[in-house]
Automatic annotation (TrEMBL):
Pfam families xref list: Asn_synthase
InterPro entries, per the entry: Asn_synthase (IPR001962), Asn_synthetase_domain (IPR051857), GATase_2_dom (IPR017932), Ntn_hydrolases_N (IPR029055), Rossmann-like_a/b/a_fold (IPR014729)
GO terms, molecular function: asparagine synthase (glutamine-hydrolyzing) activity
Residue numbers spanned by region Disordered: 543-564
Lineage, opening ranks: Eukaryota, Fungi, Dikarya, Ascomycota, Pezizomycotina
Occurrences of domain Glutamine amidotransferase type-2 (ranges): 2-205
Keyword line: Amino-acid biosynthesis, Asparagine biosynthesis, Glutamine amidotransferase
GO BP, sorted A to Z: asparagine biosynthetic process
Superkingdom: Eukaryota
Listed name of the protein: Glutamine amidotransferase type-2 domain-containing protein
Length: 578
């Protein structure tokens, strides 16, 4: 993962402030590099020294390959093509990527020997369309005379754009500069390009905005495609059907999820400056809910047994609740944070993982955030989420921000709360998130409502809407928040191949709101995932309710001054990473 910044301008300054440079370094602490290109004005004009300048800056968080791949990647110093790459290419044209993905992509982009601008443009777009994984990029192709930029189909990495009022300057960046006005999120629904070829032949004013083109992810239009990835299976179930432990889809799910996890948890480099005696390279954003607990359990099957796995669980102080407990001591919990629903489910799932996988070194990190500390970081969090600025954005961002910081109370052998546990910070640079499972497997309450109103047809329509909106789920915002701490979040449920499997599977093989399946009541929502959890010896997680109950919501209701979403249930927040 990296921080990237690029400016196309007639000015002699890249516009990269010291503050923005530091923000980019926070994202990629292993390397900082810069490159520059110039396009002269070739026609006689009033300003004979007028040039179009391209400034590129990249920082690197090295997580792929056996060396730090310094960026920006250049054809040769000072001339030729340039690539700023932020992300992970797991596959190119269906083939797994070995070694450093940024270097592989740059080499593939450069592999065309044609001197034709049109042929080169087609080649570049074909390569970019063939990449699977989370990414954002800026690529200047010298032969095509174009700057290409964009984000992956699901928008899993951040890229912002700002155009000057004079339209003679366009800036692209992983994160906004201060002042933040004027920045917009680059849409993830296509690959964008800027044609620079006419610049040197124009004696009149040149507007960069007039030369921006959006190129579709798919070369042929298909209204049935969801998120430009696959076609949703709209088949209705046969008269008699059941989703239970004998269903073939159960073993297919396990295989597909393991295949998604493999590139995300294997061959992760050892973090530099690690202080623990145990090797921690992977951490799971962990509420103890179904989605993240299944990921933790399957990660155990893949990660070498001599490595530990961190489970990061966040709870916020609620001053309203603290004041209430002071007046009514009988309501007081042993610790104010222990009353938060996610803390309770997190500890239960931690105990279940320890029991199911006794040979693994599990470490539960209880991140407790006092009200005053949250407020002290509010300005920074607001700057990171820009251009998003709603209370809901801030609510989610607070949780992600302190989770990614990864500092909290350590629990290894002891499951229950202790009065003075040691404080630790995870050394893991890779975070796993369970986001996406609810959309794919019918995990939200509205999915059950859709079924009750419209049967399987209504449920299918609702799921298609949810999956189609993943690219607009503000994952770029989440990337800006978590990457601030020099960590990369990975989404196994949003792997392209896993998504294709999930949306091509009949809906009755994923959830079952029609049949009341029993063994000790496994809920219909996300039933296939619940069956997998039970098969993995996680019976409590398999039966974990998605929604917080009314009492939990009341306990977690925010006080004045907090963004209201912090204490909403996960159902209300509409995200499932913890």
């Amino acid at each position: 993962m990296c921080g990237i910044h690029a400016t196309i301008t007639t000015l002699t300054d890249s516009g990269l402030s010291p503050e923005l440079r530091q923000s980019l370094i926070n994202r990629g602490p292993d390397h900082l590099g810069e490159a520059q290109r110039e396009l002269p004005c070739e026609l006689p004009c009033a300003d004979r020294d007028r040039r179009l300048r391209l400034y590129f800056t990249s920082t690197v968080l090295a997580l792929r390959g056996d060396h730090i791949a310094k960026q920006p990647l250049e054809e040769s110093t000072g001339v030729g093509s340039v690539l700023c790459w932020n992300g992970e290419a797991w596959r190119i044209d269906g083939r797994p990527v070995r070694g450093n993905d940024g270097e592989t992509i740059f080499s593939t982009l450069q592999s065309s020997t044609s001197s034709s601008r049109e042929i080169r443009d087609v080649h570049v777009l074909d390569v970019l369309r063939s990449i699977e994984g989370p990414f954002a990029f800026v690529y200047y192709d010298f032969v095509a005379g174009r700057v290409y930029y964009g984000r992956d189909r699901l928008g899993r990495r951040s890229l912002l754009i700002k155009t000057s009022g004079s339209t003679e300057s366009i800036t692209l960046s992983s994160i906004a500069s201060v002042p933040t006005d004027g920045w917009e999120e680059v849409s993830s629904d296509g690959i964008w390009s800027i044609d620079l070829n006419t610049y040197g032949n124009m004696s009149s004013e040149f507007s960069l905005e007039d030369h921006v083109t959006k190129n579709a992810w798919l070369q042929s239009s298909d209204d049935e495609m969801v998120s430009s990835i696959g076609v949703f299976n709209k088949e209705l179930p046969p008269p008699k059907h059941a989703l239970d432990f004998s269903s073939p889809s159960l073993q297919i799910l396990r295989h597909r999820l393991i295949e998604s996890l493999k590139p995300r948890v294997l061959n992760v480099p050892e973090p530099p400056n690690a202080t623990s005696d145990v090797d921690f390279r992977i951490a799971i954003l962990f509420s103890g809910g179904l989605d993240c607990t299944v990921l933790a359990r399957l990660a155990h099957e893949l990660v070498p047994i001599d490595q530990g796995l961190d489970l990061i669980n966040v709870a916020f102080e609620n001053p309203r609740q603290v004041a209430l407990e002071a007046k009514q001591p009988h309501l007081r919990a042993s610790d104010t944070y222990e009353g938060c629903p996610d803390r309770a489910t997190g500890r239960k799932a931690f105990a279940e993982l320890k029991s199911s996988c006794p040979g693994r070194y599990w470490r539960f990190i209880a991140v407790n955030v006092p009200f005053e500390e949250a407020m002290a970081h509010k300005t920074k969090v607001l700057s990171l989420i820009y251009p998003h600025d709603t209370e809901m954005d801030l609510s989610i961002a607070f949780a992600l921000y302190f989770a990614a910081r990864g500092t909290g109370d350590r629990y290894v052998d002891q499951i229950e709360w202790q009065p003075s546990p040691p404080t630790v910070s995870t050394s893991a640079r890779v975070l796993l998130s369970g986001l996406g499972a609810d959309e794919l497997f019918g995990g939200y309450a509205r999915h059950e409502v859709a079924f009750k109103r419209g049967g399987y047809s209504g449920l299918i329509d609702e799921l298609i809407l949810d999956v189609g909106r993943i690219g607009q789920r503000n994952l770029g915002r989440d990337d800006r928040i978590m990457a601030h701490w020099g960590r990369e979040v990975r989404f196994p449920y949003l792997d392209e191949e896993f998504l294709k499997f999930a949306i091509s599977s009949p809906v009755w093989e994923k959830c079952d709101f029609e049949n009341a399946f029993h063994p000790a009541v496994i809920d219909p929502a996300k039933r296939l995932l619940r069956l997998l959890a039970d098969q993995l010896d996680l019976p409590i997680a398999a039966r974990q309710k998605k929604k917080a109950n009314r009492q939990d919501r009341e306990r977690n209701r925010p006080s004045q001054g907090y963004s209201s979403g912090i204490y909403m249930s996960r159902e209300q927040l509409n995200y499932g990473w913890v």
